[in-house]
Give the backbone structure.
Amino acid sequence: ELEIRHAVLDAPYDVEVSQMHALFLMRDSQYAINSQNPDFLTNDQKLVKKLDDLKQEIREHPFCKVHDYDEPQSIEEITKNYFLKMIDADFPLSETPSAAERELLAHESFCEAHCKVYVGGHKYIQQLQLQLSDSFSTN
């Protein structure tokens, strides 16, 4: 619960909803009952209520996308479709840069990374200036 609260439920609302991607896959409770797996079941009604309340809060939250599933085998398809949809929304093909734009972006990125002032580089600049002044004075 803490991770869900910290990452999504208590996230600041100044984040654009379109920028928040929180997918929750919620298993049908009937699956747990039918499986008879003791890891899926509890007799503690307090825990059951706490989980139900958390699920309800997730369903009502504007950032959360909730998909219900009956069988674990359906998770793969749900997840794949969700990620493909989000990739298409975040990186639409209509906004793909042309070859020239990609080349320009690569050059700008290289320039930005290599043209910054090197912290501590003033010693090297002084050495270069000294070498240059020595070479001009000896000529």
Q: What stands out?
A: Residues 108 and 114 are 10 Å apart (CA to CA). The longest helix spans residues 122-138. The two ends are 76 Å apart (CA to CA). The chain has a mean pLDDT of 83.
